[in-house]
Amino acid sequence: MRFDIVTLFPALFEGYLGEGLLSKAIKNELVDIHRHDLREFAPQSVHRPVDDKPFGGGPGMLIQVEPTVKCVEAVEAMSAVRARRILLTPGGKTFDQRMAEEFASDQRLILLCGRYEGFDQRVTDIWQPEEISIGDFVLNGGEVAAMVIIEAVIRLIPGVLGDQQSNIDDSFSQGNRLLEFPQYTRPREFRGHTVPDVLTGGDHGAIAKWRAEQSRLRTQSRRSDLLAENEIENKHPNE
Ligand code: SAM
């Protein structure tokens, strides 16, 4: 899967691309990441500004329509693979696991990262991206939001995780959309806190039953909204 990240700060991704599952996925040619500097599309001048004051006044600066549209059009033309267009903004639709699953079935994503007060509205009007937010808070820029989307999506690409079962058990995932059950590793006892006997007894049926129950209890106490959704989703049409 190919990701094209359009940003004013391509260097921010340097360390990120070289570590962990992502770097392994890149080496194994499961994921291909390209960074593009929006400033390269600025009008020729010493400082290459891409921002200007908003019409009507107000604080801060906006990223201009011309360099942005020229940049995303050029990026899009770099590959014949049709791209899903994403503009990161706190005003967008909130990103979630279902969206990550949908994006993972695409072959290519373009992630447009804002800075300052965001983009001139005409970027959306002309380029027609999906506007996506990673939550109800305001970041300084879209780069971290782009990383969040990449992190969530690449986990779902077959071959990226060592064991695809993790995708099924993960919180919010297709398995049951609930929170994951509690997990333990060695030692069996620490400061009087012991691992539940069922997990060390070797009865796989009992372990599966315990985990399903714990997942339900945890979801009930922390995110009962998910249980309600789950019940609606699994309801038989004749019920
Ligand atoms: N003035 C904008 C507003 O209130 O909607 C916020 C601009 S923010 C300081 C700068 C950039 O950070 C945005 O253009 C966007 O790309 C990114 N950003 C900030 N918060 C975000 C969020 N919750 N989700 C996705 N991107 C975000």
TrEMBL record:
It comes from the Bacteria. S-adenosyl-L-methionine binds at residues 114, 134-139. Gene3D superfamilies: 3.40.1280.10, tRNA(m1g37)methyltransferase, domain 2. One of its GO terms (biological process) is tRNA N1-guanine methylation. One of its GO terms (cellular component) is cytosol. It is an enzyme of class 2 (transferase). It is found in: Cytoplasm. It catalyses: guanosine(37) in tRNA + S-adenosyl-L-methionine = N(1)-methylguanosine(37) in tRNA + S-adenosyl-L-homocysteine + H(+). The keyword Methyltransferase applies. Its main location: cytoplasm. Residues 1-228 form the tRNA methyltransferase TRMD/TRM10-type domain. Its EC number is 2.1.1.228. One of its GO terms (molecular function) is tRNA (guanine(37)-N1)-methyltransferase activity. Keywords: Cytoplasm, Methyltransferase, S-adenosyl-L-methionine, Transferase, tRNA processing. It holds the Pfam family tRNA_m1G_MT. Specifically methylates guanosine-37 in various tRNAs. Homodimer. Belongs to the RNA methyltransferase TrmD family. This is tRNA (guanine-N(1)-)-methyltransferase. It comes from Rubripirellula tenax.
